[in-house]
Amino acid sequence: MHDLIRPVVVAPMAGGPSTPALVIAAAQAGAVGFLAAGYKTPDLVEAELRAVRGASVGYGLNLFVPAKPPQDVAAVDRYRRLLQVEADRYGVDLPPVRLRDDDHFDAKVDLAVTYAPPLVSFTFGVPEKGVVVALQAAGVAVAITVTSAAEAEQALTVGPEVLIAQGGTAGGHSSTMSPAGYRGNTTAVQVLAAVRAVTDLPVIAAGGTGTAADVRELVTAGAVGVQAGTVFLLADEAGTRPAQRAVMQSQLPHETVVTRAFTGQPARALRNRFTDEYSEAAPVGYPAVHHLTAPIRAAAAERGDAGALNLWAGIAHTKARQASAAEIVASLIG
Ligand SMILES: Cc1cc2nc3c(=O)[nH]c(=O)nc-3n(C[C@H](O)[C@H](O)[C@H](O)COP(=O)(O)O)c2cc1C
User: Fold this and answer.
1) Tens of pLDDT, residues 228-257
2) In this structure, which of 154, 194, 289, 319 has its CB flanked by the most CB atoms within 10 Å?
3) 17 lines ligand 1 (CB under 6 A)
4) What is the mean pLDDT of residues 125-154?
5) Which domains does the chain possess?
6) What percent helix, strand, coil does the chain show, rounded to 5?
7) CA 327 to CA 329: how far, in whole Å?
8) Which helix (H) or strand (E) holds 26?
9) SS3 letters across 182-201
């Protein structure tokens, strides 16, 4: 398992960027890549597993741990009313509030057991022990994403092989189990140190990696691997949406913010009209808020209007450039 975790790990990026081609190219370039099962149907996940398995390379699969229904349903209802103006603006209907959605978790775990990728990682929480045991019995090494020492201790109770220490600098959703108070103000170095203080397990560090110096810093601080996402968003093999590529490649200055506005779970994204207008009002409530904003985001994407898109990216967005995945891996290995 240790040989599988290369110094550079290409992060799972659900919502388009992660493709079998990116995972295969990463492996061929001396990194290890993850397929992202989040939001996909089990059929699509299976097709991607087949595509990568056929290439005979090391790889991982990432799953979302199902969220508990939001505690404050009234806050989600209030947010829905607030979003009506956006629905009108884009000419879409807001769906009724949908509190439960397990993202086909059981079916995806079954696929992971059947296809037994060398690594399976989890985000958004700690899977049940039975899930971890079933994967391990199939020969899979299990990794759990955490954002603090307390979450690491919780993850250790189910016996994973690896922890992923995710800093607040990371692009996309935070795996935090405390979404109400999450500010995203930790670095990967800080979370790595906090996690290593409570375990001797191998730890992969994630967040803010844009250069070989960033990778070296985290490896020197004890990480067995460094999981980078944002810096691969413009890779030729990535399935990043054209609207996001265009924003990232424009000469306009950008900054990132941590927001629950799109999904109800804190995520780091490029600041835009939607994050400015809704970050303060957005409640905790993944995936209910994700479903509420989905038609708005889809309509905005169709119009090429990046102002209402969830442009997930971390602080390393300034280092992202269009190139092959192999070139980006090489730039990180140094
Ligand atoms: C567009 C995007 C999508 C992401 N989707 C996932 C995902 O599906 N599962 C997951 O565990 N992490 C996801 N992440 C977070 C990464 O695993 C990782 O923590 C992060 O990319 C590391 O920070 P960096 O973006 O600064 O390199 C995503 C990140 C981005 C940028």
Assistant:
1) 999 999 999 999 999 999 999 997 878 999
2) 289
3) yes
4) 98
5) 8-333 (3.20.20.70)
6) 40, 15, 45
7) 5
8) helix 20-28
9) CCCCCCHHHHHHHHHCCCCC
